Amino acid sequence: MPLYEYTCQECGEQFEKLVRFSSTDQPIVCPNCRSTKCTKSISLFGTSHTSGGASAGNTAACAPSG
């Protein structure tokens, strides 16, 4: 089940929801105001990168340069 991020167009609430593939045709309901005017937000995802000398635990590789 994928985890999606949504934003309510009525109250501005941002929330996450696990969506089953079998229920993708059902409306998403805001947990704050119960509105169905919710849009899927652009979300980031995590990856593991170990090549090039950067390890998953090395946060310096994620620091801005310059």
Structural class assignment: mainly beta
Helix content class: under 10%
Radius of gyration: 17 Å
Query: What sequence of helices (H) and strands (E) makes up the elements?
Result: EEE
State the strand order across the main sheet.
2-1-3
The CATH C-level class name of the domain at 1-43: Mainly Beta
- DSSP E strands, number: 3
The proportion of residues in beta strands is 15-25%
**Globular, elongated, flat, extended or rod-shaped: what is the shape?**
flat
Termini distance?
39 Å
Description:
The chain has a domain at 1-43: Rubrerythrin, domain 2. The chain has strands at 3-8, 14-18, 38-40. It starts with a strand and ends in a 26-residue tail after the last strand. A three-stranded antiparallel β-sheet has the order 2-1-3, with no helix packed on it. By secondary structure, the protein is an all-beta fold. The chain is flat.
Please describe the topology of this protein.
Elements: E1 3-8, E2 14-18, E3 38-40
Antiparallel strand pairs: 1-2, 1-3
